[in-house]
Here is the input.
Amino acid sequence: MSGGATAKDNLRAGAWLLADMGLNIWAISIVKALGAGYPPWQLVFLRAVVGFCLILPWLAHQREVLRGIDRLPLHVFRVFLSAVALTGGFYAVAHLPLALYMTMNFTRPVVLVALSALILREAVSGSRWLAAGLGLVGAFIAASPGNVPWTPALLAALAAVLAGTGAIIVTRQLKGTPPVVMMLFYTGGLALITAWPAFSGWQNVATGHWPFLLAVGVFSQAAQFCFLRAHWLGDAGFLGPLGYSSLILSGAVGYVFFDEVPTLNTVIGAAIIVAATAFLTLRTARLRSHAASGN
Here is the structure.
């Protein structure tokens, strides 16, 4: 909803979004702590299987909507992009400073502007192109060679951003699809796509690691629910700026638990990205509000 939320609704939405960020940071922290010891596709497979098990009761309750599934190629393409995004993201977070990883993730809105124009042929104003350009400059500063080496982890983070943004664009094309169908393809599809690489290169999981690796799926699935609830209740213009607090949260977690101190380049780059994405979020919310009011 956009432009129609009450102050009370926005406060409730903010609480849901904070829960989403908290759950996500715990999932990411587990991957960072343990992920270097396991192939990323094995972690994605476990995350998907846990998520699929969690939505089974929902599937059973709304099984009638599964009879009218259409646009199958788009669903498959979305799952493929999501698999690339998650696998790249899990590899990156295990090998990059947490604050830098989160900073790179925040470039998705600016990448979305460029891909929407190139793929969907959407009209993009000069001010939005400028904001997108500034966001990418911020990403370059944060990931500059003087800040962190151009390792496979950094390339994996960039691939995750591109694939994740592509998945968002495909999701737009699936507008109107019941949420339970989207979740079925997401969790079930991820499990199927990553099953072969996961089992072919399977690393034995230490007994003490199992609860934590399974918790990644629980936390991630619960976070996704919280995110959907937040955006169902609140305005994008309110939630967008609030989402940037996850940069502070990730920096704090990286410092306390992983002895990581964000570099000056990371801080400057993050500030530029936040400014650019805040502009894009607020402008989009304003345009939607005007369209809804008929102005």
User: Anything to note?
Assistant: The two ends are 17 Å apart (CA to CA). The CA atoms of residues 40 and 90 lie 6 Å apart. Residues 7-293 form one domain. The mean pLDDT is 82.
